[in-house]
Amino acid sequence: MTAAFHSQVPEIRRWPANQAEVQAEGEFVLYWMTANRRPTFNFALQRAAEWARHLNKPLLVLEALRRSYPWACQRFHRWVMDGMEDNQRFFESRAVTYYPYLEPTHGDGRGLLESLAARACVVVGDHFPCFFLPQMIEKTARRLKVRFELVDSNGLLPLNAAPKTYLRAVDFRRFLQKSLKPHLKQMPEVDPLKGLPLPRLPESLPEYQRWEPSVRCALEELPEPAAVQERGGHGRADQLVTRFLNERLQQYDRRSEPALQVASGFSRYLHWGHLSAHQVFQELADAEDFDVDSWRATTPGSKEGGWGMSANADSFLDELITWRELGYNMCHREKNYASYESLPDWARATLEEHAADDRPHIYTLKELEEGRTYDPVWNAAQRQLREEGHIHNYLRMLWGKKVLEWSQTPRQAIEHLIELNNKYALDGRNPNSYSGIFWCLGRYDRAWFERTIFGKIRYMSSDSTARKFKLGPYLKRYGE
After folding, report:
1. The pTM of the whole model exceeds 0.85
2. Assuming Cys at both sites, which of 106, 128, 159, 330 could form a disulfide with 68, CB separation 3.0 to 4.6 Å?
3. Integer Cα distance of 386 and 380 in angstroms
4. Which architecture, in CATH terms, is 340-478?
5. How is the chain split into domains, by residue range?
6. Which residues lie below 8 Å from residue 52, measured CB to CB, with a gap of 6+?
7. Which residues pair with 33 in a beta bridge?
């Protein structure tokens, strides 16, 4: 066991995933990059770099992608490969060895991590509270014979800092306003590898013979949906942040209008770890001259004036921090976050009370997937999802509400929404995806006026949306 050392990564953000010891005689420190697929603003990479400096060992960064995982497809593979290309270029100028690996066929990558870990001093990995990653990490931790640490670099609030599962945004917002300040003073380093004097590994590792490094593979052999025109990677994410701050933030109060494109567009980059919420917050705070020491919410629990910045900045941060991290709080603490049983008691009660209500329109999953409903607004939103991998923010809520109306049961609606979202959305399989889906059935909401099928669940319609917004340009672009 090696002696402890002072770490700039907050203790609340890191913990051992197994009981194995550090092997100081190992050849290198291994960072297994699975969720934070970026070289900057990354607490996990920072922790791995600290271990490497402390032990005076080379640092090896493994970023791998298996061939077969739930909803694996050309779209998601290409997005990850874009990020790998960016990472490869970045790491070439740093004193680390970057090992990108794309599994050629299902099962080919089996044994790679264990082979590297067997020669490592310590393994550092990402904590992500959603999808299949927690189960994968848990199984891996049991197999490794070397210390395996997990690091939380998901959001501004460490996941372990929340004392409970928050069921309302107003309560979580109030907790953030009271408790977040100390964590805003513990930001990740922008570039934890800059100027880091580490020994280097040989040009070629023994594993390369069996598991050949690569940042590109043939997408045609993977299932559809096809890749989208938009590109992934932390380089594109950086450009998007700059464009948002310089152009879109000034119109953020109009983000619900489908004819405009003024939303941030960050969600898919945040999901794949190509962008850090810390980076977005830091750059916005700098642009707004925000002083964390003097920060105090004017009305606790309210999003208006919550940050003391401009109205648009305050509104955006409520989405980036309150609503985004509310979903992470749920997935981190509740294993049944994707089940019908996770809905609030009042929501399940009202849905079950109206389970026998007549449903004039019921569509199969295939009909929904192909956008073959009577509703041109819904069909357009589904077409945007199929073609671009996302739906306009406001219409995404309407999209989910209509599936509840058109399904035989609320359970079936959840199944259909999860399948459609996780198959096509670049930001699917994420805590925020499940927040959005389950919000449509009452999560984080309150009881509204009673009506058929919905009961007291908040109702939305395409007709009311058309009265509220100019849908012509959107329907022209995505309609039949």
Report:
1. yes
2. 106
3. 10
4. Orthogonal Bundle (1.10)
5. 340-478
6. 28, 29, 58, 59, 196, 198
7. 63
